Amino acid sequence: MRTPVSTYRLQIRKGFTLFDAAETVPYLRSLGVDWVYLSPVLTAEQGSDHGYDVTDPSAVDPERGGPEGLAALSQAARGAGMGVLIDIVPNHVGVATPVQNPWWWSLLKEGRQSRYAEAFDVDWDLGGGRIRLPILGSDDDLDQLEIKDGELRYYDHRFPLAEGSYTEGDSPREVHDRQHYELMGWRRADNELNYRRFFAVNTLAGVRVEIPAVFDEAHHEVVRWFREGLADGLRIDHPDGLADPGGYLKRLREATGGAYLLIEKILEPGEQLPASFDCEGTTGYDALADVDRVFVDPRGQEPLDRLDASLRGGEPADYEDMIRGTKRRITDGILHSEILRLARLVPGDAGLSADAAADAIAEVIAAFPVYRTYLPEGAEVLKEACELAARRRPELDQAIQVLQPLLLDTDLEIARRFQQTSGMVMAKGVEDTAFFRFNRLGTLTEVGADPTEFSVQPDEFHSRMARRQAELPLSMTTLSTHDTKRSEDTRARISVISEVAGEWEGALGRLRELAPLPDGPLSALLWQAVAGAWPASRERLQYYALKAAREAGNSTNWTDPDPAFEEKLAAAVDAVFDNPAVRAEVEALVELLEPHGASNSLAAKLVQLTMPGVPDVYQGTEFWDRSLTDPDNRRPFSFDDRRAALERLDAGGLPPSFTDQAAKLLVTSRALRLRRDRPELFTGYRPVQAHGAAAGHLLAFDRGGAVTLATRLPHGLARSGGWRDTAVELHTAMTDELTGTGFGPGAVEIADIFRTFPVALLVPQTADTQTGGES
């Protein structure tokens, strides 16, 4: 198996095709990247900016460059000695425009007789043999249907007609009633939908790749990539939605000839990848959480907790209770159709009413500490969730006792489907709701993280890295993705708030007076985001604020927005640009957080690139990137600027300051090149201890020759007098890859090593690298 040393994620779309990606390969090679990592490239909904709504798995998307584009990218990568990793989406397909998806079009036209009927997860009994499509404004809109060009039309929506279902003179409504589908009001989806979706997205229909014939057809093009040498590995999107993730990975490994596989799996704290999973690891959210927290000051927890409580009217947030409530909000709301489908699978002789079964199932799911089980692995997790649910709701104890053996029996459909459903509720209830409500420090509410873990001390970080080296050395590490709610540099700046909690409280109080918002916790989230992303455009901040408020769901939401609140929210954001006092307050806050945010950014980047695992660089983040949630993190950027800056660095020009974005490019390029060109320096993991007054501000480790040194808690360091006598012992003469300066052997003061940058990457000097210069 060929495995990557590092990857660089590229978002392929109409505006940046595979041909464009091929042209970036020389720059990526110069940057030090080992493999190119592509977002989904199979044919997707026309105009899709992300590609996760695949409409035809049989071909590379013409909008993204088609098969010729993939061949060009692969050839360019091969010529540069680089590999290719491609993101694929096995769980669902895009059905927003049925005519673009031949599988879905066939299903709608032919119903159960379609050759693709078994590919989709439809509860035909609930729909009376028809697929329910929630696309109407209301059921009254059935009168708006028309027949045109042999199709049923609803405004711009097009649907096929079953053979013989239309006769001249029939009304559109009569013709509709003869179809294999039923168009219905969109609000009915929460309770009456009868096909499995991706989360609550009606336009993404679940696919049953556990059926061999469906797997084969869905992966025919993917397998071709490996047969023809176009790809070397795959990133698997949302495996938790599959009926049998372990079986799927085994089959995929065989189909690709043993290729490198990564899965987008969210591991909760303490959770391990199932032993049955035949893959190299995850896409790195677990690593992201560890890196973030080692740069968060634990002394900030108490004052930030107090501030958060004051914003909630004096009551501290109970996170466990919060996520129980947000999960129930999801099970009883946008995913209620899925819960009702599980309830219908409870045997009739079980003695449970449909309502009691649904309530008990939802309560068990709300008690889950992880996304899902993979029975028989995880049986204890399920049992513990049942026990917790019964303690919370004693009146459901009997119903839960009836359900538990059913949910543990993998021969039953209810057990398999329950496993597919619990992860949806976790994602929507926690990541997409609670993470916008639990706002004491925005750094902590990132995908795959537990926001109740405020910080990680260096000793614990080292322990986790040693375990990663031993157990998952080929798993990906990352700091930014297309799914992160705040990019790495935004979070790095927000983390400084943990060091200046008092100043933050004062700034927040003044901002709330100047731009009132009747939602205390949301105001904290908003102003942290503004400070973290600044400078930012009005449009970007308005979009983020509205999305965050609707996701939180406390003061407004997606289905029933509150216009009055949203007007106040928009006014608060506008005040940043239109009110000089608010603008001055924001800029003063940003000035307080910088340059410490830049120090955190460089430190986190160097640690991520050199720690155990396969580091990924998300497109463009070799420069400062202070993005917020999607689609903000998919904004266009300039490769030309980065290429020119790298050439200047390679010509010997150091950045004028570590706050200059070229400093991040320097760190990224030197770390990536070293990992690629000298792999023998990255074969182990050993903590490096400092001694002296500020030893706690150094995070350092030896990877088997290469030594990473990074500043942590830089504001506190400066406030306490700097590094002073703090030093590390170097056992041999070493050179900093960033500056070319030599140090050691012996005790070397950290202040000397960090004279130019707050980070260093030391490598042993050899006969031809010794400069004789020692600081």
Low-pLDDT runs of 5+ residues are 771-775
* Shape category: globular
- What share of the residues does DSSP label as strand, in percent? 5-15%
Helix share, percent = 40-55%
Number of strands: 27
Distance linking N and C termini: 44 Å
Kindly describe this structure:
The structure is a single chain. The chain is an alpha/beta fold and 775 residues long. 42% of the residues lie in helices and 14% in strands. It has 28 helices and 27 strands. It has an 8-stranded parallel beta sheet with strand order 16-15-14-5-2-1-18-17. Strands 19-21-22-27-24-25 form a 6-stranded antiparallel beta sheet, with helices on one face. It has a 3-stranded antiparallel beta sheet with strand order 6-13-12, with no helix packed on it. Strand 21 and strand 22 form a beta hairpin. Helix 12 (336-344) packs across helix 13 (354-366) and helix 20 (520-533) runs antiparallel to helix 21. The protein is globular and about 90 Å long. The two termini are 44 Å apart. Residues 771-775 have low confidence and may be disordered.
Summarize the structure.
Helix 11 crosses helix 16. With 775 residues, the chain is of the alpha/beta class.
